[in-house]
Amino acid sequence: MTETLQTDVVVIGAGAVGENAADRIVRGGLSAVLVEAALVGGECSYWACMPSKALLRPGTALKEAQSLAGSREAVTGTLDAAAVLERRNSFTSNWDDAGQAEWVAGAGIELVRGRARLTGEREVEVAATDGRTLRISAQHAVVLATGSTPSVPPIEGLDTTDYWGTRDATSATEIPGRLIVIGGGVSGVELAQAYARLGSKVTVLARHDILGSFPEPVRALVQEGLEADGVEVRTSASPASVRKSDDGGVEVSLEGGDTVSGDRLLVSTGRHPALDGLGLEEIGLAPKKLDTDDSGRVMGVDGGWLYAVGDAAGKVLLTHQGKYEARATGDVIAARAKQEPGSAEPAAWSRYTATADRYAVPQVVFTDPEAAMVGRTLEQARADGVNASETSLEIAVAGSSLYADNYRGWAQMVVDEDRRVLVGVTFVGPGVSELLHAATVAITGEVPLDRLWHAVPAYPTISEVWLRLLEKYGL
User: Fold this and answer.
1) Which of these, 36, 327, 391, 397, could form a disulfide with 14 (CB 3.0-4.6 Å)?
2) Which CATH homologous superfamily contains domain 2-45+92-149+273-357?
3) Contact (CB, 8 A) for 262 and 178
4) Predicted TM-score (pTM) above 0.85
5) Which of 123, 167, 122, 145 has its CA nearest to residue 37?
6) H or E, element range at 227
7) Superfamily of domain 369-473
8) Rounded to whole angstroms, how far apart are CA atoms 436 and 331?
9) Are the C-beta atoms of 362 and 440 separated by less than 8 Å?
10) Measured between alpha carbons, how far is 286 from 22 in angstroms, rounded to an integer?
């Protein structure tokens, strides 16, 4: 039996990004139906941001205690793996989304559980989990917030070998004795360190270098931190094939002849927008990649009624940036429905555009040491035609010396010399993630360096590195 439903906006995907889009739409005075085939709250809540950081934090806290004379003498033993996993479970609500669904209802959003696909202009069909078929007509817009899915590398034997994806690693109930990680990106190195500190013997296989988008000093310090925890990091290591070993584990054969053996294999080689099965071909779009403007509107759709946000849009695959896009898109959909001034063709940096996607994307790697970066590297800035310079130094201030004995860190700022403003900032070191928002504000606000010099860092904090950077620059 097919039922019909009318609403102002349909949002497909009830992860953090879809929730934000629907919330802003309802706050703007429209009605919204939120469709989700899995758990409300999405990847970040149950298999990515929250559980991975819950796995990492206890090891970092232990290391922090061990890094200070006086406290290190009081620390005995190692991590309690069972307690860490149980605490991880609390952050995922034991993979129960009742609380998230309750929030959706309280926000005035109608939740439909099922798998959605586009069937025409502003038309969505849902195969509901309760067996019904729903046809939902949207008065104004449809928003795709379907997230992303892991990219599986073409390695011989992988399709017939049991392996972990990142979901399996963040929700695991066991700590393998030997863990092989294919992939040296953010998730790969974070999970490698988490499992090493929980007791695994970990080998990371990176086709090129680890954290390839970060400057070399960042990569070097993070690799040093991994190796200090017993992780074997093998760069320029290209897996040729994998197979189940005779002892029930797994063997990875590398190009060149080497073989790496483990009890578990984790494949973490990136993600791509989850667009399959959405019916994009029904409205004349390619089902693999979308082109959106800064308001989230999908280009090439007559009537401009289709939007995409977060990983589904394929611009920046980061939860916080996706939520930012969702807020802008939700607001602009509501404003366009009411024909509010400035919403039809919104200006850059208005509340209706995700302009920061182009200039000021913050990201953190929660390894120990942490790596934090916002904006553009020197190479990226110059490739964009910016007359850019860089200033970098080791983090060696009173605050860092107090933070940890033998503190090691590095900082860099990239300056647009024509405008004398920051366009990129990078930190690596223990605790540097808390420095990042100041850099994000400076870049987003285009604070002139001469004015930034008057932002006096409190003493003694690691933020004193700002003063040292500006002094080395010449202020």
Assistant:
1) 36
2) FAD/NAD(P)-binding domain (3.50.50.60)
3) yes
4) yes
5) 145
6) helix 216-228
7) FAD/NAD-linked reductase, C-terminal dimerisation domain (3.30.390.30)
8) 27
9) yes
10) 25
In the structure encoding, which two tokens stand for residue 95, read together?
Answer: 């993979």
User: pLDDT per position in the chain (475 positions), as tens?
Assistant: 689 999 999 999 999 999 999 999 999 999 999 999 999 999 999 999 999 999 999 999 999 999 999 999 999 999 999 999 999 999 999 999 999 999 999 999 999 999 999 999 999 999 999 999 999 999 999 999 999 999 999 999 999 999 999 999 999 999 999 999 999 999 999 999 999 999 999 999 999 999 999 999 999 999 999 999 999 999 999 999 999 998 999 999 999 899 999 999 999 999 999 999 999 999 999 888 999 999 999 999 999 999 999 999 999 999 999 999 999 999 999 999 999 999 999 999 999 999 999 999 999 999 999 999 999 999 999 999 999 999 999 999 999 999 999 999 999 999 999 999 999 999 999 999 999 999 999 999 999 999 999 999 999 999 999 999 999 999 9
| CA 59 – CA 168 distance, rounded (Å) | 20
Separation between Cα atoms, residue 150 and residue 48, nearest integer Å: 12
Euclidean distance between CA atoms 149 and 276, whole angstroms: 10
Does the bond joining 58 to the residue before it have cis omega, within 30 degrees of 0? no
Q: Respond yes or no on whether the N-terminal peptide bond of residue 273 is cis (omega within 30° of 0).
A: no
Q: Residues spanned by CATH 3.30.390.30 within the chain?
A: 369-473
Helix ranges (DSSP H) in 67-185:
81-91, 98-106, 166-170
264 with 168: CB under 8 angstroms? no
Instruction: Tell how strand 250-254 and strand 239-244 pair up.
Output: antiparallel
Q: Which two tokens stand for residue 86?
A: 């149980």
All CATH 3.50.50.60 domain ranges in the chain, comma separated: 2-45+92-149+273-357, 158-269
Cβ neighbors of 20 (< 8 A, separation 6 or more) are 323, 326, 327, 330
Of the candidates 210, 149, 229, 137, the one whose C-alpha atom is nearest the C-alpha of residue 365 is 210
338: helix, coil or strand?
coil
Tell me how far apart the alpha carbons of residues 475 and 469 are, in angstroms, rounded to a whole number: 9
Q: How many residues make up the chain in this entry?
A: 475
